[in-house]
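User: Phospholipid-transporting ATPase, Acrobeloides nanus:
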Amino acid sequence: MTDQHQNYANAMGTSGQSTPYTKRHRRNSSLWVPSGAPFTNAIRSNIVAPLEPLRHRFGRQHSAASEREIMPNWLDSEIPRYKLPNYHKYCDNKIRTTKYTFWTFVPKNLWEQFHRWANLYFLMIVGLNFIPQLQAFNAYMGIIPVAIILALNAIKDGIEDYRRKRADNRINRNTVHVWDPQTGRFRKMHWELVLVGDLIHVSIDETIPADIVLVRSSDPQGTVFVETSNLDGENNLKQRSVLEHCRKYCRTRTPLEPCEFDVKVFVNTPDKRINYVHGSMIYNTTGGTDLINRENVILRGCQVRNTTFVEGIVLYTGKETKAMLNNGFVRYKRSTLERATNKFIIYCVFILLLMCITGGAGSITWLIHYEAHDKTENIPFMVTYAASAVKEGFINFASFIISYQVLIPLALYISVEVIKLGQIYLINQDLDLYYEETDRRIECRSLNIPEELGQIQYVLSDKTGTLTENKMIFRSCAVSGIDYEADPSAAPSTDCSEQEVKLNETLLHLLHQLDSNALDDTNTDSNALFYFFLNISICNTVMAHRKPHEDAIEHGYVEDEVFYVGNSAFHIRSEQYDRPGSSTELPTPMTPTPMTPPATFLQPPATPTAITFSELPTPSTPPSMPSTPCETKDPPTAINTPTASKQYSFNASDLVRRISSLGKLKFLKRDNGKAKRIHKPKTKERIYEAESPDELCLVFAAKAYGFSLQNRCPESVTVEIPNKNSLSGAISLQVPVMKILPFDSDRKRMSIIVEFGDRILLLCKGADDEVISNLSQEFKKSPRGDFVIENSRQILQKYANDGMRTLVMAMRFIPQDEYETWLENHERIEATCIDDKDEQISQSARLIEKDMELLGVTAIEDRLQDGVAETIRALREAGIQVWVLTGDKLETAKNIAMSCQLFSPQAKELLIDEQSDIDMLLSQGEVFNALLSGKAVKLLKEGDRGMLEVVRRSAAILCYRMTPAEKADVVKTVKKHLKGKVLAVGDGANDVPMILSADVGIGISGQEGLQAVMSSDFALARFKFLRKLLLVHGHWCYYRLANIMFYFLLRNAVLVFIIYWAQIFNGFSGTDPLDPLYCMLYPIIFTSVQPIVYGACDQDVSAKTLLEEPRLYNKGRLGTVYKKRIFAANMIDAVWQSLVIYFIAHLAYFDTECDFWTFGFLLCSSLFFVNSFHLALLTRSWTVPVLCVNVFFCFFHFGFFIFYNLIATPGIGTKDIPLNIAVTAMSSKYFWAVLFVTVVVALTPRFVIKLIQNKINPGLVYEEALRRKSRSISINGSVNGVSFPCSRFVL
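Assistant: Predicted structure for Phospholipid-transporting ATPase:
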């Protein structure tokens, strides 16, 4: 074996030996792909598994177990993975969102297609055509059009399913490190191969592949932070913790050895409850037991944040994970045009029955009149199938159903779907809907409702992240009732490059004057300043690091003098590296952090100044405590993994030389196709990691003012604060943390309890109403307290008027005995496992968060997105009523509504909270801007007539304090009671119910995950793109599809009516002069591509005009194009065109020697050119593709008949047509004259009527065209502007 092959073999297992159940990949040697199960298992997964739902539905039901028992997969290294108990008991981790498999595609797709009544109708027609007495044409030829339509639909469905399969594969082929018991290390494995009971290792910023219970993390205390935005849309990080008995493995001195980690896990069976997991882990070696709850479990789809790595045991995989169980099906949305078309199809069926009945009656009458059954021998070419005229008439009645089947447009559905695909493609290519900053373009996820964009009457929008940036910027603060608003012209602080913080120079000067002599009992404002900024700097969960997290598992490992990294293996000599235990071993062990002494000022290295605790400020009495200087260090980011015994540090000069021989090692970055070397400057700036953008914003603001968060660990927080007596201008303060009370939506505040000298300090921040209501009575009654509270209320109102998000800061010193009593009760509640545990913890926190003193308030701006105001104004001008649904309080929501121009300045703002408000408003006759509370929304949901009338008369509506369920209720109410088309737009998981309930759902790909995007019909990067999407693309899609659907119905009706008129002169026998093959292919091939190109590309007016004149949107919003009266007018026009086509040809060749086939060729040509020029009259925008397609099919029409005449014989199932019929006819000038006259006469009524209509009652589009034409003439002095031929306007 060569060295190269030996290296590869070592990379895959032991030296030169392949494992008994591992496939070896030459190009991907680091990927672990266990060998598959036998072929019978593959058959089960591909054929039997898809039938499992039927077995569960109709088969015998078995009682389900209340919990599942999970055995570890790593205890026996000799058992192949496909023989593990967990492999057979539980599903795999492969995600399948496809509808079909290779084996089920054909039967399942046909089953779904024949759920459409139209397809069943045509299948019936094919069956009837196999009856000899009813044959209108060759039976097998009748299968051709139906087969083509079914095949095209199947291809479309297959492509869509293939796209889903590719998306599934992208997810299933993600990799995660899984413990391999044979090699004794973590190895990369595809997600789809992960099993229940596996031990997996997930690094920072990676996504969890399955639901896991935590057994180890890089944090010594076992704390893990995860982002759940993919599940619930919340950007705030959630804290999870390792099981208690496993926390010893989080310390690097006690690494986890899986081979000795013998456990058994019991957990509840899979269910949809996201926040519920109940179980236990039994440690067989020690006999201990840990209870498992939601705090110890991370769900699939979460991302690891602020934690170098986590390790856990897989509990649920694949379709049994909570994320997949809650991944509900998106309801099928049918457009208004589709529903209206179904009604028109029914009308066509009635017309068909009427024609068949009259045809059958005419047949009976003709047969009786000519005594056909008595004189059969005297009537040449007369074939009868029954003994009487009446029976023959019924047979002809059935044959007419086959002859007239084209009246129901077989190709309508597939043609419309192809048109919609073309429209979606062109929308996707619109660069105006591309957002460069995030590299996102519009994503059209629903392919069947683009025309709905042109009929929207109500837009219901979320606020945060949809209208705003969801990027928090610190704008101002007020301390002790004094507003320290930053100068708008001031330059941002240079100390915080990550955030734009504009400073107030007065406040900055006061803070930098803080020192031990100035902070005494009398200077209460200075005390408040200190505690205010201490509050915003430490009352949070922000972590501070000097270096980014880096998981050592990616650094490679050494085994048998071979260094493995990535997909490569390198030989090294033993003298080039140090064995384990040497001073150079990697990574460096981390010493457990000792308990921190009480709050201590830490002296900087270059600062000889020391400050004692007697110099610290308090609002009433300064604390007194001894000084205990200590040193803080950032926790190491490289933590030992279970493979630490196999990871070494060595002199890599030889390794570098060998790699360099393959090419110079450079760090390169692509920039516009060119490679550039990356220079990463060294920096000592702290890296802050926060659970929420609000917290991060406040920490950067505190840093800008001199209170810099340096380090945070479970026992203490270290802050650098300004001090003028220090040589460096700052000193460090280390504060021991006693308890953290996290934020919850019930309390609407967060608190941290710290040991401050010999006293216990509580710092609290939260919503104004919750914090101010818990201030102490002593503080409220004091003159200073009254001043601070009143001024703070006014400042809060001012901030709210400016659309700012506000937080209130407060503090309290807690007596020792009170704290101990409270802590004992609080810890008892935390240790229990009860259903209302969260509620009891919240109530317990309220008991300590009382009798506080107000410090100040902060103002954070959630900046309005660019273009929002212009978009809302344009939508309102288009006649669309815009609603904003938000969970914010009234003042903040109202001011956002004003800034985004939701509220009309000419209309009054009226708050509706009770029934009496409705009665008062109805008595007024003016238009107003309505603000609806939760009570008003409830009245709206109940269908209160007064409330509905108020909504109809409102210029704009703002609903505040809305929950996700209430948002969905509002959407459903608008659809039910106001009978309007509703578009809902949002960016978070809390907007998903609203998006799914709307006729059109828009997801904004913003800061709150992808849940809204995944549930939407269209995904946009910015709210401003909604303007062009509706006013331009929506208008075009509706206009095109409405016209083209009428064209399809008219086109087929003209063909059928021609056949009907021919029956008058053929004894109502069902025989017609039109070629049967051409009749079948005419709507599918000859006249299908041209309307498809028209439906995808035509423009009745330019995009610029539509954006400048939003009122043109009324054409679709009011549904003026697709009406019953216009359908009736088109059917009348179809009758006229068919009469002209048939009778002009009939009269032109009357009493001549024109043969049957030549006459039929003339009718086919007249039919084709009348429909082609009809479509030309509809076309408003002539482009090269449109022109080329029309010209091509004109030549194709004649070319088909020339070629068809040459090959048509009874041997191929066609009638024996005389040779050169088409060539002979086209050589006659008389043929072309008749063709020309037919086209002109057939289309003249439509042409004239449109001229009169444009003169008497022009539409909005025509009026705007005339206005722009007049303006062009006045500017140029001549008619050099837009030309307006009558053919550009459609009936």
